[in-house]
Amino acid sequence: MPGSRPPEVKIRRSFPDVLAGGIFVLIGGAFVAGSLGYDLGTPLRMGPGAFPLLVGSIVAALGLAIVVKGLVAGEVIVFGSIPWRAVAVIVVAVLFFGFAVRGLGFVPTSAVTALLTTLASSRVRPLTAVAVAAGLTVASTLIFVVALQLRIPLWGPWLGF
Amino acid sequence: MELLDNLALGFSTALLIQNVLYCFVGVLLGTAVGVLPGIGPTATVAMLLPITFSFEPVTALIMLAGIYYGAQYGGSTTAILINLPGESSAAVTALDGHEMARQGRAGSALAAAAIGSFIAGTVATVALAVAAPPLARVALRFGPAEYFSLVLLGLIVSITLARGTALKALAMIALGVLFGTVGQDIFTGTPRFVFEQRELYGGFDFVSVAVGMFGVAEILRNLENEQTRAGAVISKVKNLWPTREDRRRMVGPILRGTGLGAALGVLPGGGHVLASFTSYAVEKRISKRQQEFGRGAIEGVAGPESANNAAAQTSFIPLLTLGLPAHPVMALMVGAFIVHGITPGPNVIIDEPALFWGLIASMWIGNVLLVLLNLPLIGVWVRMLRIPYQVLFPMIVLFAAIGTYSLSFNAYDVYAIVFFGILGYILIKCGCEPAPLLLGFVLGPLLEENLRRAMSISRGDASVFVTRPISAVLLVLAVAALVIAVLPAIRRRRETVFTEEE
Questions:
Q1: Domain extent listing, chain A
Q2: Taken in order A142, A144, A146, A152, is the CA torsion positive or negative?
Q3: Between A and B, how many residue pairs show a Cβ–Cβ distance under 8 A?
C-alpha cells in the first residue's frame, strides 16, 4: 500500500556524505594495508605498524559509518560546482614552483608561478595578470631574499649563468 | 608576591624594543588579515612561520600570537562597517553592529568593540597569569598514561565545537592523526608510508598541511562563484566616543562577555566562536530591550566582542600549560615552539620563565596597541577591502609556496600543499571541517608516543589508562564529551548556533 510507510523510514541519500565517507575508507584502508607491512610488535613493545593499523582501522570504520548514514539519512549539503580551471591552474602552478625553484632560481620561478596562478580566475585580463605577476615577483624577492635573507639563488643553474 | 614578580619579568621581556616592534607587526598583520575576507589567521601564521625561524624564540611567539588576536579584532571592524565579518567569530558582531552603523552610530559600535575587547583582553591576561602556573604544576606530575588520555580528551572536545556532524569531525581528527604517522617512527627509526622517498622521512610538514587546508582549499572555495566584491556601502564614522547612555549599557555585557569568553576559550577547537554566540544569546535573553536586538542594540556588540577577545587570550592556557593547542593557530605555534627547541607544555614555565611571562605580558601590550592602532586607522582598513581578489589569491599561493619551501628547501613540502589543498577542498565541500584534521595531525605523534611509552611502562597492560586516577577521570570526561557531541538535543542547539553564522 503506498503511503503507509512510517515517515522515519524515508530515505535521504546524500552524495557528499558518500563521497566523504568513501575518501575516509580509501585512505584508512590504504594505511591499514601499508601498516601490515611493518612490524606490529607486542602490547609491551608496540612496533611501528601498530598505531597506524589501529588509527587506520578507526578512519576506515568511521568512513563506512558515514557512507551508510549518507545512503539512509544523509546530511543536506549543497555540493556546488567545481572551478576546474582554478583547480588545474593552481595545482600546476604550485607543482611547478616545487619542481623548478632549485634549477631556475627564485625570480623566474616566482614570476611563472604567479602568472600561472592569476589565470585561475576566469575574469582576469591578460594585462592585469602580467602586472600582478610582476608586482608579486618584485615584492616577494624584496621580502624573502633581500629582507629575510632566504638562501635561494635568484637565478638558477638551468639558465646557464 | 610571586605573581607580581613574574609579571615584572614578563613586562621587562615584552618591553624590549624588538619585542614591542614585532608585537606591533603581528597585530598589524593580524588586523589586516582579519579585515580581508578570504585569508584567515591560520593560513597567515602558516605562511609567516618560516620567517620567524631566524628570530629569538620569544620574539617569534610574540609576533605569531599578535597575528592571532589581531585577526580576532580586525574581523569585527568590517563586520560593523560593511556587514562583512572577516573572521567567523565576528559574524555575530555584524548582526547589531552593522545595524548601528546604518543608523549612523558606527562610531559607538566601533568604540564598544574596542573598549570591550580591551577590558576583556586585560582581564583574560590576568586570568591566564593566575591560572597557568597551578595548572602547569599539576601537569608536571603527568606520566605517559595521563598525557595520552589528556590528548585524547583534547581531540574529542574539539568535535563538540566543530560545525557539521560529530561523525565527520571524528573522522577528520582520526585522519589527521593518521597523516601524522607518515615519516620515520620515533622509537625504531623505521620509515613509514614514505614510498622509498627520502624526502618524506621527516613526515609531512604541518605548514604544508595548514597552508593546503586553510589557504589553497579556501581559495578554490572562493573561486567557485566569482563576483567582484560589490562596492559596499561604507558607513561614515563619526563620534567615536559613545554617549553616556551607551556607556551605561555597555558595562554589563562587557563584564559578562569577558567571563564567558575567558571560560569557553579554554575549550579546544574554536572556543572563541562559541563564546561570542553564547554571549549574544545571554545578552538577548536577560535584556529588558529584547526587541532592540538585531536592530542595533549596543549590548549585542559589546558582549560578543568582549567574549571573543577574552577567549582568544585564554585559549593560550592549554597551549602554555599542557602543550595542547586549542585552535589551528595554536597548533602552528606548537610547531614554532618545537622549531626553536622548546617542547610546549608544563616545562615552559620553569625552563623558560622569561619566554612564558614575556608572551603573556606582550598580549596586554598587544591589546593596547590594537586600540591605539584601530580607531585612528579605520579608514585605512576599509580601503584595504578594495584590493581585488584577483591580486590577493595569487599572492597567497605564491607566498605559501615560497614559505613552505624555505622551511627546509624540500620540494616535497611544496608538493604536499597541493595534496592537502585538493583533499581539503573536496572534504570541505562534503561538509567536513579542516580544523579537527590539523589538530589531529599535530597531536597525533604525541598520542602515539605516550601510548607506546605507557604500554611499555605498564608491561603491556592496557588497563593502566583506567587504573591511574587522573587518566581515568580524563577518559571519563572524553567519553562524556563524545556523548554530548552526538546527543540530538545538544546537536540541534549547536546547529542553530552555527547556522546563524552563515
A1: 7-72, 84-159
A2: negative
A3: 206
Query: Average pLDDT in the B226-251 region?
Result: 68
CB B55 within 8 A of CB B22: yes
**8 Å CB contact of B401 and A97:** yes
Share of chain B above pLDDT 70, in %: 91
Out of B167, B192, B412, the one facing A62 most closely (by C-beta) is B167
* Alpha-carbon span A28 to B149, nearest angstrom: 23
Q: How far is B79 from B364, CA to CA, in rounded Å?
A: 24
Integer angstrom CA distances of residue B92 from B113, B269, B292, B304, B367 = 12, 18, 15, 7, 21
Rounded Cα gap, residues A30 and B175, in angstroms: 12
Q: Highest mean pLDDT: which of A128-132, B102-106, B372-376?
A: A128-132
Dist CA B183 CA A157 (whole Å):
31
State the smallest CA–CA distance between residue A5 and chain B in angstroms. 24
pLDDT class of B89 with cuts at 50, 70, 90: confident
CA distance A95 to chain B (A): 6
More confident residue, B493 or A126: A126
Asked if B418 and A95 come within 8 Å (Cβ–Cβ), the reply is yes
- Distances in Å between the alpha carbon of B89 and those of B110, B307, B351? 16, 10, 34
Question: How does pLDDT run across B253-268, given as a tens digit for each residue?
Answer: 999 999 999 888 887 6
Which grid coordinates belong to B295?
Answer: 536592530
Residues paired with residue A12 on neighbouring β-strands, in sequence order = A73
Contact B45, B68 (CB under 8 A): yes
Taking each helix axis from N to C end, the angle separating A84-104 and A106-118, rounded to the nearest 10 degrees, works out to: 170
- The model's pLDDT over A26-73, given as tens digits with 9 standing for 90+, comes to 999 999 999 999 989 888 888 899 999 999 999 999 999 999 989 988
Instruction: For residue range B151-189, list pLDDT tens digits in order.
Output: 898 888 877 666 668 889 999 999 999 999 999 888 888
The torsion angles phi and psi of A12, rounded to 5 degrees, stand at -125, 95
Residue B61 DSSP label: H
Alpha-carbon gap, residue A97 to B197, rounded angstroms: 19
User: What angle (nearest 5°) sits at the alpha carbon of residue B329, between those of residues B325 and B335?
Assistant: 70
Q: Note which residues in 92-121 of chain A have CB less than 8 A from chain B.
A: 93-95, 97-99, 101-102, 110, 113-114, 117-118, 120-121
C-alpha cell at B17: 624594543
| Inter-chain touch A120–B223, beta carbons under 8 Å | yes
Nearest to B442 by CA among B345, B315, B325: B325
Closest approach of A157 to chain B, Cα-based (Å) = 16
Contact B310, B364 (CB under 8 A): no
Work out the angle at residue A22's Cα, subtended by the Cα atoms of residues A17 and A24, and round it to the nearest 5 degrees: 100
Mutate to test the interface with B, among A121, A127, A130, A145 (most CBs of B within 10 A): A121
Residues 6+ apart with CB under 8 A from B89: B72, B75, B270, B272, B273, B275, B276, B304, B308, B311
- Please report which residue ranges of B83-205 form alpha helices under DSSP H: 91-102, 106-140, 144-161, 166-179
Cα–Cα distance, B477 to B170 (Å, whole number): 16
The rounded distance, in Å, linking the Cα atoms of B232 and A85 is: 28
- Rounded-to-integer distance, Cα A110 and Cα A117, Å: 10
Q: Which of A66, A120, A136 sits opposite B171 (nearest CB)?
A: A66
ipTM value: 0.90
CB proximity A145 to B under 8 Å: no
